[in-house]
Design goal:
This protein is of the alpha/beta class. The protein is built from 17 helices and 12 strands. Strands 1-5-4-2-3 form a 5-stranded parallel beta sheet. Helix 4 crosses helix 5, helix 7 crosses helix 17 and helix 15 runs antiparallel to helix 16. The radius of gyration is 25 Å and the shape is globular.
Length: 352
Amino acid sequence: MKLSPKTLPELLDHGFDTVIDVRSPAEFAEDHVPGAINLPVLDNEERARVGTMYKQESPFKARKIGAALVFENAARHLRTSLSHHEGNWRPLVYCWRGGQRSGSFAWMLGEIGWRPGLIDGGYRTFRRLVSGYLYDNTLPHRFIQLGGYTGSAKTELLHRLGRRGVQVLDLEGLANHRGSLLGGMAGGQPSQKAFETELAQRLLALSPDRPVIVEAESSKIGDINLPPSLWEGMKSAPWLEVEIPVEVRARYLTEAYADILADGAALMEKLAPLRYHRGHALVDHWGELVGEGRLETLCHSLAADHYDPAYRKSMSALTPRVLEVFHADALTEAAQDDLADRIAERLQTIEI
């Protein structure tokens, strides 16, 4: 059975019990259909070896060696990962383009007695649907941006709003990056394709009939680019602004960026490019604060002398329509809860 979806929701609502990606681990790591498991019929080295043989020696020899490897690996998966499935199990299989790798694996599963499906066109079909959704169409969602200077706990406020039933889109979470010069997080960022897969899946789960709160970002989060449909929706969205004193934000940043601040040498390496924007004297001063362990003072200066001017410049260029500014003199748990309550209450009165 071949699945030939015309839309991304149609593919995601496939109805099969298990989705099996038989591509190599490297291909799977870059991006894959949500929920898929990786049972490669050729690993990274085997795929490279067969591909080189196909180009440099003989297509026939490459297919012969490749077939042997495919069925050896498939047999191992049958003895291990698939051994517990009963006869009524229905898997959906795909490879890069729905060709020999997935076809061979699905044939073997069918000969056993299972009823496998194949994604017509393989991963390329899935990727085309994701790209079409994010790049070729206008998103139906009504966005509201949550703005505020760096250190205003905007990401944490998003999570609190989500727990209050508000529709939120956490782009920094999807990009695994805090969206600033020091925003790198453990594990690194996903690939652009993997980010877009998660983004599309998240957007499809959000109702177009209710507003979606998204943190104010630039069009790039770390190395991840926001797709144009999302960026256009964000640029035209109204804002809710959070205003927190710089002293409070400095304390918050000291805690939130503790992992970055802990490694002084790596921190100064990240700050080095700012010599061309903020001057040698200021960056040297930051180095002295790092050396002395005065991290809250450092965060205060980073906010006041770098992040805040950059934010004001961005606001001047964007000229957003700010619906309301929410002030708070602290960012304790109670203060954040109060902020979230006030923002959630205000959202009930907004018509977009």
